[in-house]
Specification:
The protein is of the alpha/beta class and 247 residues long. It contains ten helices and eight strands. Helix 1 runs parallel beside helix 2 (44-50), helix 5 packs across helix 7 and helix 7 (137-149) packs parallel to helix 8 (178-195). It is globular. The termini are close together. The model has no long low-confidence stretch (mean pLDDT 95).
Length: 247
């Protein structure tokens, strides 16, 4: 099981060090559990150092540019992220798509760059509320997944992780029921099977918390969680992690 924390634009370097100290004291290594933290770019180095003693913890970058270097102010290349000590990268998060205008083509380029650079990509897919209400969930998710993987050989997609994050459930307090989430995960699994990468983990994200994580993780279609708001407090995230791993 993979439990990933997306800190978004929160938690400064000193806070990250305090977070790690408190969290690690509450969460011992567990067999079969992989923990990933996606700090802001300015807190990556502090996070890498703070979690260095735990082999079950990996640090990721929240976004990358597909170019290796150049005049791209504010962007982070895969090589720079790797040099900072990260092992994973978020790609295509809904906020990158819908707040910053990232296109499917941008996401495809980023996925290719991350795979070529040796990082593990966490590819996010998910529909907006109006798309769900129009019955377009399956077509939106499959379009996003297919566009990102277009032109990439199955042999190179082995490290991929897919996260289904319905946009209407991110930070809203609304959560897809375990049955609803499992249904979309089955659709994604079928598409991954067709691509020849059926072993890829599929995570769920969207207002996951201590009250619903066990019911969600009990579904065999769900291989972990990508969590935002509930991961910002070390005690709260430790509790969510404990519940998920002891389900």
């Amino acid at each position: 099981m993979i439990l990933a924390a997306n800190w978004k634009m929160n938690i400064a370097p000193a806070e990250a060090r305090r977070f790690a100290e408190r969290f690690l004291a509450k969460v011992p290594p567990r067999q079969g559990g992989e923990l990933v933290f996606f700090p802001s770019a300015v807190a990556i180095e502090a996070s890498v150092q703070a979690f260095a003693a735990r082999p079950d913890v990996r640090i990721g970058v929240q976004d990358v540019h597909w170019e290796a270097r150049g005049a791209f102010t504010g962007a982070t290349s895969v090589a720079l992220a790797a040099a900072a000590g990260v092992g994973c990268a978020l790609i295509g998060h809904s906020e990158r798509r819908h707040v910053f205008g990232e296109t499917d083509e941008d996401t495809r380029r980023k996925l290719g760059a991350v795979l070529a650079g040796g990082l593990r990509p966490f590819l996010c897919v998910g529909e907006k509320l109006e798309e769900r209400e129009r019955g377009e969930t399956e077509s939106v998710v499959l379009r996003q997944l297919g566009a990102a993987c277009h032109g990439l050989a199955a042999a190179g997609l082995g490290p991929l992780v897919v996260a289904y994050e319905p946009v209407w459930a991110i930070g809203t307090g609304k959560t897809a029921t375990p049955e609803d989430a499992a249904e979309v995960h089955r659709v994604i699994r079928t598409a991954l099977d067709a691509l020849g990468v059926g072993q890829v983990p599929i995570l769920y994200g969207g207002s996951v918390n201590a009250g619903n994580v066990q019911a969600l993780m009990a579904r065999p279609e769900i291989n972990g969680a990508l969590v935002g708001g509930a991961s910002l407090d070390p005690d709260g995230w430790a509790e969510v992690t404990r519940l998920a791993l002891e389900r």
